[in-house]
Design a protein that fits this description.
The complex is a heterodimer of chains A (292) and B (378). Chain A has 292 residues and is mainly α. Chain A contains eleven helices and four strands; from the N terminus they run ααααβββααααβααα. Classes of the chains: A mainly alpha (292), B alpha/beta (378).
């Protein structure tokens, strides 16, 4: 039983990281209708930004957090401007391939600048490990879960209640009609990328605090897993990303504990296939019928 | 016009041939060229750099003392980034540069690919640190300075038994790395003989080496007092960072030569490596005179304490010197014959070699505490 609860906690810990990354994926997809495969690598750049500010420049962690967010947001807008904007009217396959290209570009840039050796993420704050009846819970796990939930709620409110959120929903439904209504489509999409990438900065901070070591390939695997989580929960749906991320983390850790570490990834992706066969839009995804 | 062009082309070609001939003529016999291959950049750069630095010290010492039979040694070292394919092309480059004796590769994978590539060449191969059993198989001119994996795995089990460190142990190994699997299998086989019981076995792969929480939970829950982990320092540092404070303070983490350099990976908090024990034939704080001299020279040159890989590199050069002096030649065939009759005492212990190229030597263990490694005494 103890073992079961311990696995549950480590599943929640991993799942909340996936959820945090998946929120960025799903937000960009939901509005710009494109898969930003470079999202995981923006997280990696955010983590390096944290390492450089604290370790190399010796600045306090608060500055590191702010700087990571700013750098990620600017990087997201820059990627959108340079790589995706020129392809606005191109087939979605071209954009997809470009996104993969951007992902590798970022990885190799990091490889050139920081080298392939892993570097330790600075300790931003000391979190106690709680020991309740033999069960160990890291403070950081609780904080990650809480922050992910807060961001999910804030994001939902932002999209549903604010003017910019309304513009985003309009662009997502019909770009041409939205621009006829006086909405600047380009500006709205740029804002979407800025917010999505700022979320990546949050993910980088929590990833760094939980797993400590950062490499140029750090963003790749969690990026793919989080993308899976977003599809699992219904891509485009914000609560779906949170649910998908946490479920994915739980499935992964339970398969590692009770089945086999070797099989964990196969099981995770197997579950995804099953869910998509039964419910092609994902757990919370809505069926959007094309009006003729 | 055409004729002039033809003449000019012919002239250029002739010049090329002369130039080529000139370059080959440079390969004089006053210098003995020893070529090494290993990762000098990338995640595993610490291993290659250590070997090269250790070898460099031996080369400088020998050259200062007059060389081998009056000939100076030149050390060539190529970067492979631990990639077996790059190692083969590096080997080709070294042969073009006139290499007389090869240090093989720093890693087993590199060594194995060079061993195969060098079968037809008359070159002695002496890898300082390629420890996989198969790394030097199939080439009767290939030898090694370090332990071989199956011996190392068994030696670890024996060490645990002899020092009564635990009767029940846990294991963590990387299931997609030959080195890790090789040690694990040998360890399991020896544990059965010695009546040590393995109560918990956990694995991971290269792609899952970021999150160790389930493995840590399982190992903590099993209540073992010793975790055998035949893995590399990078993965070990990730595991230990996540495990910090979760294991009881008297639990040992027992690894082999792969853990070498772990302190460099946990610079942000050296106490992460507390209770890590590393099986090694080399202890930098040993009282032996030759070890002391080597450690002092290394510290002076690189401002760092040499690890086992540096010691392996250092010994390899001296073993080559001893073999060339005994054989009176640099021919691979002659040197290979000499190797099996040679006995050499270096900083990593006293070694003799079998026809299979393997050497057997005594193992001790280094215990890390507060960022310092010292010889483990029960």
């Amino acid at each position: 039983m103890l073992h079961f609860i311990q696995t549950l906690i480590s599943g929640l810990s991993l799942g909340s990281i996936y959820a945090l990354i998946a929120l960025g994926y799903t937000m960009v997809y939901g509005i710009a209708k494109m898969l930003n495969f470079a999202h995981g690598d923006v997280i990696m750049i955010g983590a390096y930004a944290g390492i450089v500010t604290v370790m190399s420049l010796g600045l306090p962690p608060v500055i590191a957090i702010i700087l990571s967010i700013v750098i990620c947001a600017v990087l997201g807008m820059l990627i959108e401007f340079l790589a995706y904007k020129p392809l606005r009217s191109a087939p979605s396959l071209s954009v997809l391939i470009t996104a993969i290209g951007v992902s590798y570009f970022l990885q190799n840039i990091a490889l050139l600048i920081f080298g392939s050796q892993q570097r330790a993420y600075p300790t931003i704050a000391d979190f106690p490990t709680y020991n309740i009846g033999g069960i160990q819970i890291d403070g950081i796990t609780i904080l990650t879960l809480a922050v992910t939930a807060v961001i999910m709620i804030a994001l939902t409110l932002f999209i549903n209640k604010t003017k910019l959120g309304k513009a985003m929903r309009a662009v997502s439904e019909d770009k041409a009609a939205a621009s006829l209504m006086g909405i600047s489509v380009n500006r709205t999409i740029t804002m979407t990328f800025a917010i999505g990438s700022a979320l990546a900065a949050f993910a980088s901070i929590f990833y760094g605090m939980t797993y400590v070591y950062i490499k140029p390939t750090t963003g790749a695997m969690p990026g793919i897993k989080a993308f899976t989580a977003a599809v699992f929960g219904g891509i485009g749906s914000i609560p779906g990303a949170m649910l998908g991320g946490i479920l994915l983390g739980l499935i992964e850790q339970f398969s590692k504990t009770y089945i086999s570490t070797l099989w964990a990834d196969a099981i995770v992706f197997g579950v995804l296939v099953v869910v998509l066969v039964v419910k092609p839009t994902g757990l919370l995804g809505k069926q959007m019928s094309e009006k003729v | 016009m055409k004729k002039i062009l033809c003449m000019m082309l012919a002239l250029v070609m002739m010049a090329c041939m002369v130039a080529c001939g000139g370059a080959q003529g440079d390969n004089n016999d006053d210098v003995i060229k020893i070529g090494g291959i290993g990762p000098l950049t990338g995640s595993y750069a610490n291993y290659g750099t250590s070997v090269r630095n250790g070898a460099k010290i031996a080369v400088d010492e020998i050259n200062a003392a007059g060389g081998i039979d009056g000939k100076q040694i030149e050390l060539l070292f190529e970067d492979s980034q631990a990639d077996p394919e790059s190692a083969v092309s590096a080997y080709g480059k070294l042969m073009d540069d006139g290499m007389d004796v090869s240090l093989g590769g720093v890693f087993s994978g590199e060594t194995a690919s060079i061993t195969a590539a060098a079968v037809a060449d008359d070159v002695l191969l002496l890898t300082p640190s390629g420890s996989a059993d198969k790394a030097i198989e199939g080439n009767d001119k290939a030898f090694r300075v370090c332990f071989y994996d199956s011996y190392q795995g068994a030696a670890a089990a024996n060490y645990i038994k002899d020092n009564e460190m635990a009767t029940e142990v846990g294991v963590l190994y990387e299931s997609d790395y030959d080195y890790s699997v090789g040690l694990y299998e040998a360890f399991v086989a020896e544990c059965e003989k010695l009546d040590l019981s393995i109560v918990e076995t956990q694995t991971f792969t290269t792609t899952t080496a970021t999150d160790f929480s389930t493995q840590i939970d399982a190992l903590v829950a099993s209540g073992v007092k010793l975790v055998f982990m035949p893995i590399y320092a990078e993965e070990a540092s990730t595991f230990l960072t996540q495990a910090k404070g979760k294991f009881a303070s008297d639990v040992y983490f027992f690894g082999a030569d792969g853990l070498d350099g772990i302190l460099g990976k946990v610079e942000q908090d050296p106490s992460i490596a507390d209770n890590v024990l590393m099986l090694t034939p080399f202890a930098a704080d040993s009282e032996e005179a030759n070890v002391k001299a080597f450690v002092e020279a290394y510290k002076k040159a690189y401002n760092a304490t040499p690890d086992q890989f540096a010691a392996d590199g250092y010994d390899a050069i001296y073993i080559i010197k001893a073999a060339i002096e005994a054989a009176g030649s640099t021919s691979g065939e002659e040197l290979a014959k000499t190797m099996t009759t040679l006995e050499y005492t270096g900083v990593t212990g006293t070694m003799t070699w079998g026809a299979d190229g393997n050497t057997v030597k005594n193992a001790s263990a280094i215990l890390y505490k507060d960022g310092v490694g010292s010889l483990f005494v029960k």
